Amino acid sequence: MNGTTGAARWFHRPLPRPAARLRLVCVPYAGAGAGVFRPWAARLPADVELIAVRLPGRENRLREPPPADWPSLTRDFAAALDAHIPSPYLLFGHSMGAMLAYESVVGPLTRLPERVLLSGCRAPHVPRALPALHALPPEEFHAELGRLTATPADVLADRALMALLTPMLRADIRLAETWTHPAPSQLPCPATVFSGTEDDVAPPDAVAAWRSLAPHGHREHALNGGHFFPFTRTPDLLALLAEETTPAPALPRRSDRS
Question: DSSP character for 209?
């Protein structure tokens, strides 16, 4: 098995459902791992399987170098999706995870998702809302991590652990903060975007700008909360995801129409 695209390396199935009608592939935000999505698995519709993405430099891939650039990360992730995730599937990403979802569907991905779900992420032609921090000195950088990556206080206080995690955190945040496309490609599949009403990282207007890049269909949802609204308003988000994963009603056959 190729190490770059190995299924267990890239994907975690917290509640395997081999006969699922649909897969929901979830890409984490900067600094996070597949574990942030584990609580969602049992709360999705019974015919939907959650597949959480494991990015390099964390969890079971801690010894691997963190993502260095968008082209290589996108190439490897798209290859893993094409090799191991059967269709039909939806692709969900939050913050940096949404950026990776976008890069994949407009780039090397061969089998597109039924829909891409972009959460807490500015459109690629919209400038970032906050000053960059990926190059800050260590103490200032660590002070900002709790706000930007939801890093727990006990982790921030553990010097040995932070020494281990900081290269990955800086790499992720650098990718997110330098991500820009002044003339972005349009999405080749339908899109749904989610915003937090009090999100200062990806303000609602910056998220709404995806509308201009979604010629195949676009839906918008706003939830109360800041940048991590999917994890502070989980029941509300999962209710929306249940709607997104519900099959569209079949059109009546011509002979059945009145």
Answer: G
User: How far is the C-alpha of 222 from the C-alpha of 187, rounded, in Å?
Assistant: 21
Half-sphere exposure of 48 (CA within 13 A, CB side): 22
Nearest one of 191, 240, 197 to 222, comparing CA atoms: 197
Instruction: Specify the 3-state DSSP secondary structure of 135.
Output: coil
C-alpha 143: how far from chain center: 24
Cα separation, 188 vs 191, in Å, equals 9
Whether the CB-CB separation of 183 and 126 falls below 8 Å is answered with no
CA 87/CA 114 separation, integer angstroms: 8
What percent of the chain clears pLDDT 90, i.e. is strictly above it?
A: 75
What is the CB neighbour count within 10 angstroms for residue 35? 14
| Residue 144 backbone zone (phi > 0: left; psi -120 to 50: alpha; other: beta) | alpha
Q: What is the pTM of this model?
A: 0.91
pLDDT digits (tens, 9 = 90+) for 43-84: 999 999 999 999 999 999 999 999 999 999 999 999 999 999
